[in-house]
Amino acid sequence: MESITKRKLKLEEIKKLVKCAFGEDKIEYLEEMEEGYFNAIYYIRLSQGREVILKVAPSKEVLLLTYEKDIMRAEVEVLRLIKAKSSVPVPRVYFYDNSGSIIENEYYFMEKIIGEPYSKAVDTHTEEEKNKIEESIGRYNSLINDIKCDTFGYYAQQDKQRDNWADAFLIMIKDILEDGSHFDIPLPLPYDEIYELILDNASYLKEVKTASLVHWDLHPGNIFIDEKNQISGIIDCERALWGDPLMEVYFSNMFNPNNFSKGYSKEMLKTKAEKCRRTMYNIYLYLVMVIECTYRQYKSNDQEKWTFDLLTKEINSLKAIN
């Protein structure tokens, strides 16, 4: 996906980064990968057939959404945290550099995951195979959520973390609405009315007492499946935060969570409070997806159209709950 946030590198620049990370600059094969909407991603095969992935953060002059501050650092640290604290198959981080000494952009090299994204492989699997895969997704997501913290909020934005989930989430809502108001991006309701709607339901957020590590972007495109139909890797945890596990994407209205919930070993969305919180998380997700289109300058407005409609539906759903 083309986006203004993607920093295109020249071959000589990539060779310098490889030299810094691995002590050599010989590249047998190089390919820019189209996956992703935010970072530039390159597949590199080094000498002796070693395969690595290079991710490059946007340039500093690119205007980002507020929550996107320091998310590459967050991804590197969260990958290392998950690797240390669980059996979840995440790629190993080989090298991370935010010094600006070679290029101004942050970048890191990580292990190449064997297999292909579940989003590409899903149509080649039987229903039984998909059921087992999605149960496994639930098990791994549960292990991620088992990692805890004392404060709530985005992983890399400690200045905005709070000791309760309601305050942290209201900051997140306020930030994304301020991002939208910067360009006066049309929304289904006036900005202040959307904030007030969330504020009116904030009591349901107060039921979340423990801050869990939330991947928040664990969709089929970020889950790799090997030739044995096993999950071989989970990637892209740059948007990770400390919050409510119910915020995970598989609990959203984009997916059928039944098999996921079997693996997760805990039923969700049973109480009014859970349904209300999940609706608020849907609203937040669609606010991000609508507003980011202007910031990323996508060539197509398809995402903006369909997420605007979903945002409208979720706002109306939250109104109807009470």
Summarize the structure in short.
The protein is an alpha+beta fold.
Instruction: Characterize the overall form.
Output: globular
Distance between the termini: 39 Å
Q: How much of the residues is beta strand, in percent?
A: 15-25%
In the sheet with the most strands, the strands line up as 1-2-3-5-4
Biggest β-sheet strands, sense, barrel: 5 strands, antiparallel
Low-confidence stretches are: none
Structural account:
- Strand 10 (223-225) and strand 11 form a beta hairpin.
- The chain has ten helices and twelve strands.
- The strands form three sheets. The protein has a five-stranded antiparallel beta sheet with strand order 1-2-3-5-4.
- Helix 5 packs parallel to helix 9 (272-296).
- The protein is of the alpha+beta class.
- It folds into two domains: 11-111, Phosphorylase Kinase, domain 1 (2-Layer Sandwich), CATH 3.30.200.20; 116-321, Aminoglycoside phosphotransferase (APH), C-terminal lobe (Aminoglycoside 3'-phosphotransferase, Chain: A, domain 2).
- The model has no long low-confidence stretch (mean pLDDT 93).
- The protein has helices spanning 11-22, 71-85, 118-121, 127-145, 165-182, 191-200, 202-205, 258-264, 272-296, 302-321; strands spanning 27-33, 40-46, 51-56, 93-97, 107-111, 116-117, 148-149, 153-154, 211-214, 223-225, 231-234, 241-243.
- The longest helix has 25 residues, at 272-296.
